UniProtKB/TrEMBL annotation:
Source organism of the structure: Dipteronia dyeriana
PANTHER family in alphabetical order: BNAC02G40300D PROTEIN, REVERSE TRANSCRIPTASE-LIKE PROTEIN
Upper lineage: Eukaryota, Viridiplantae, Streptophyta, Embryophyta, Tracheophyta
Gene Ontology terms, MF aspect: nucleic acid binding; RNA-DNA hybrid ribonuclease activity
The protein, known as: RNase H type-1 domain-containing protein
Domain RNase H type-1: 6-75
Amino acid sequence: MTENVNTDAAVDGSHGKVGIGIIIRNNIGDILASSSRPLNVMMAADMTEALTIFGGLIFAMEAGLLPSAVESDAQCSLLGWLNKTIHCMAKFGVSLDGPLYWLEEALRWVSPIIMGDRPEIL
């Protein structure tokens, strides 16, 4: 089974906060783990995205997963709705005091969007 890590960051410059969103799915699109969390640092957008990708890989390892791919919008929207969903999770992370994690699920309002993005099983 292959895992895919999708990450995104959201910046609230007016309050000096950053949040990240992470979703890990298997090759048929099932959610294996997800997270929203704040970052306690402000930095350039490219460095924030790099730190977000690194955070996604660390989260995957902590969840006992070995991803075969990492995807991040990094200023280009290649993944459509999934990137928007992860960005919403990142924005939610801005409002948190600490990280939140979900295994084999995601936030209640995020799951239907993610599952709608699942690839069809042949």
